[in-house]
Amino acid sequence: MKPAPFAYEEPRSVEEALDLLARYGDEAKVLAGGQSLIPLLNFRLARPERLVDVNRIDELSYVHREDGKLHIGAVTRMATLEHSPLVAARWPLLAESARLVGHPQIRSRGTVGGSVAHADPAAELPAALTALGASFQARSQRGSRTLAAEELFVTHLTTALEPDELLVEITVPPLPPRAGGAVVEHARVHGDFALGGASVLVVLAEDGTCSRASIVLLAAAPTPLRAVAAEEALAGTGLAEAELAEAAELGAEELDVSGSQRAHRRALAAELTRRALVLAAERARAAP
Amino acid sequence: MTRSIAVTINGRIHRGEVEPRTLLSDFIRAEGLTGTNIGCEHGVCGACTVQLDEEPVRSCLMLAVQADRRAVRTVEALALGDDLHPLQRAFQDAHALQCGFCTPGFLMSLDAFLRRRPDPDDEEIREALAGNLCRCTGYVTMVEAVQAAAKALGGAAG
Q1: Which value does ipTM take for this structure?
Q2: Does the beta carbon of B70 lie under 8 angstroms from any beta carbon of chain A?
């Protein structure tokens, strides 16, 4: 229940961190908020030779709006996102999602970039960022590249980040007018990872019909699961209750879970998606 | 391969030579501040909750080196001599503890919570309690204790 020994690096800048990752990438692990990695170290399920602790890289801790987009530094704490007036006003789905992450004691340390790079398919922020069409900037000494969620999340606990790359920023596009988002999940115990849930965004055209829907299921597949068939089914509809329920069923069909839990998890996914869509539609109708 | 650190705990600087793998919870206890209890050591039970720059954190999910030149508050900071903190008094009055092992973690979580939400409703209190586990007393009397403490603290401020 104590970590095995490791070498410890504490870079103060992105440059310094990239230099360390270029040198030690294969044997090193990036330590962000530590709310997932340190339990793994304590259990000795992870035994990295070296930790590159990014917590003192102040330049990666920010939330600001520029050119209409939200820019989130990778080392921004969950609690900062949760309490940001900017996020609450313009990207409420992110604030709502942050509030569902663990407990206040976890959110005070856990970081946005850490949650993304850990890539747990049951995590709330990766699902919300996928629904919002966020992009992810990775840097290494070889250069910088920007990935979409579909490119970044490869499988359970695995991203497309190379060993020498550091996730530095997450960018979220502005919400169009008449947009509404919602996240609904179910966990057996408050604060636990969800057994199922949906993070959704619907956008209405001027006539009140649905011009676009993003539906992302969490804890449903090895990555945040984009329910494309359900999204397409909603486009052009009036988002009536029956249409939302039908789309939720379509979404749940894509569930990539096998074994004895499947029937239960599928029913759960359908109902939670339906509730999220109902809430998001209500919010879209009330939005400016 | 140890490192020198200087952690301010409850206003006093504690210097130490630690391995990078030393958990903050172990460092605090080795400094003689044994009010912080270690339960699960993987961030689930909340018994080791302390405050880092006033915010509640699991001290078993932080390395001691990460607290270097930072300010930590532990349960020992709550009472002033024999004068219990309003939260501690409320826990005592409401019988919100039996064995007491989990209590320091609850107190440090709730002290930070009441700073942010001085006048919480029951739902908010229940959510604030959810990050800590108690296996003997249960939570009903804790909700009462937090209500009483909020009143006492509000009275003190007003």
Answers
A1: 0.94
A2: no
* pLDDT tens-digit series, residues A193-212: 899 999 999 999 999 999 99
Q: Render pLDDT for A118-160 as a digit per residue (tens, 0 to 9).
A: 999 999 999 999 999 999 999 999 999 999 999 999 999 999 9
Decide if B49 touches A, using CB distance below 8 A. yes
Parse chain B into domains and list their residue ranges: 3-77, 86-157
Let me know: does A102 contact A35? Beta carbons within 8 Å.
Answer: yes
AA letter at B3: R
Number of Cβ atoms within 10 Å of the Cβ of B20: 21
Shortest distance, CA A211 to any CA of chain B (angstroms): 37
B76 inside 8 A of chain A by CB: no
Pairs from A60-66 (Cβ < 8 Å, separation ≥ 24): A60/A14, A60/A113, A60/A168, A60/A169, A63/A87, A65/A90
Confirm or reject contact between B24 and chain A (CB < 8 A): no
- Cβ of B66 within 8 Å of Cβ of A55? The answer is yes
CA dihedral B154, B156, B157, B158 (to 10 degrees): 80
User: In what side-by-side order are the strands of the sheet with A28-31?
Assistant: A7-9, A50-53, A28-31
Minimum-distance CB partner of B21 among A3, A109, A190: A3
Per the CB < 8 A criterion, the answer to whether B66 and B102 are in contact is: no
B124 neighbourhood in chain A, CB within 8 Å: none
Q: Note whether B19 contacts A: Cβ–Cβ < 8 A.
A: yes
Residue B118 carries which DSSP code?
A: S
Tokens 């969620």 sit on residue: A149
Task: Select the CATH number that applies to the domain covering B3-77 from these four: 3.40.980.10, 3.10.20.30, 3.40.1380.10, 3.90.226.10.
Answer: 3.10.20.30
Q: Helix A241-253 and helix A262-286: axis angle, to 10°? A: 140
- Do B1 and A109 count as a contact with CB atoms less than 8 A apart? no
For residue A120, give every residue at least 6 positions away whose Cβ sits within 8 Å of its Cβ, in sequence order, or none: A36, A126, A156, A157, A193
Class of domain B86-157: mainly alpha
Contact B97, B140 (CB under 8 A): no
